[in-house]
Amino acid sequence: MSLLPLPPAQRTLGHSSLAVSPLAWGMWRLAEQGRSVGEAAPLVHAALDAGITLLDTADIYGFDGQGGFGDAEALLGEVIAADPGLRDRMVLATKGGILPPLPYDQSPAYLAEAIDASLRRLKVEVIDLYQVHRPDILAHPQEVARVLDEAVAAGKIRHIGVSNFTCAQVAALNHFLTNKLVVTQPEISPLRITCFENGELDQAMMLGLTPLAWSPLGGGRLTAPETPRDKAVAAALDAVAAAQGVSRTAAAYSWLMAHPAGIIPIIGSQNAARIAEGAAALAVQWGREEWYAVLVAARGEKLP
Ligand code: NAP
Question: Would residue 79 count as lying in a domain?
């Protein structure tokens, strides 16, 4: 049986020289449950101690429909301020461009101010990766590119990425950027497989973008599957997990990492032990037959 390659110890983000771990940790849920700085810090340490160096947040994280905009960034900023040595251990990624209730704003004045506001909340001098969170249909990509390039030139952000962009939106923004995109961040999981066949990952490979997979466990659904389809996907993952002595979640992350685009799954857990457990995924090896069995379970029908 031919085996797919294991992920490397480090990946570079797109065409940049920025080295990151093959797994990331996300802070969408960090500011939930009134988590204090003292409770958030061990989670940051858990990720870094597990060798996870790419940390992903966003200005909208913490927003609960009423308030809380900026809270996850601010909480991370407090953690870093209390222990400044942490900053050098992480590649810091954030996002902006969603502004409730609009819902999206990437007008030049707003986007420039959003970058400054993220820097203030995070209490850092530079953001390593700034991602446009969701496309603003009313923003011309040339204008968006100008603001982002200016932020790079000003030393406020190092690299640029997008999230939830279509292939055409990626191509349009990239066309106008001087500092080309290094990352695209779609939702990808064994339960969300559209980008394997809709061209997004092919475009990422063509342009040299690193795909970051958000909600790699389907927002947690894979850990407690309910529908027949979700259960079939879980069973296909469990077959490999059992054979290699790892958890289903590790099998799910590794399934994504086995794709040739070099997908980096963003672990979403806010539990220190589960964050650390994710690293077991780096040793899971997939055969083609097993890999396709998960895809076919998710498709619900055989490949042609
Ligand atoms: P996920 O990994 O699909 O789901 C994580 C959820 O599953 C958590 O609530 C976690 O709870 C739960 N879970 C239950 N058992 C688990 C286990 N054994 N191991 C791990 N998790 C378990 O990821 P996500 O939180 O939905 O998203 C991950 C990251 O993607 C976010 O933090 C964010 O950085 C990014 N994201 C980006 C976008 C975007 O539009 N760009 C959208 C959504 C998310 P516990 O905390 O209790 O473990």
Answer: yes
Total domains, the chain: 1
Q: Is 200 part of a structural domain of the chain? A: no
Whether the predicted model's global pTM rises above the 0.90 cut? yes
Domain that holds residue 94: 17-185
Residues belonging to the active site: 61
Q: Is residue 3 part of a domain?
A: no
* The token pair that represents 158 in the structure block: 């190092």
- 150 assigned to some structural domain: yes
pLDDT tens digits along 97-134: 999 999 999 999 999 999 999 999 999 999 999 999 99
- Give CA–CA dist 123/132, Å, rounded: 20
Q: CA nearest 295: which of 200, 195, 204?
A: 195
At 293, which helix (H) or strand (E)? helix 288-299
At 148-194, the pLDDT tens digits run 999 999 999 999 999 999 999 999 999 999 999 999 999 999 999 99
CA distance 16 to 47: 23
Instruction: Read off the CATH number of the domain in which 42 is found.
Output: 3.20.20.100
Q: Tokens 């031919």 appear where?
A: 2
* Closest residue by CA, ligand 1 atom 32: 26
For ligand 1, is residue 272 a contact (CB within 6 Å)?
no
Most ligand 1 atoms within 8 A of CB, residue of 75, 192, 223 to mutate: 223
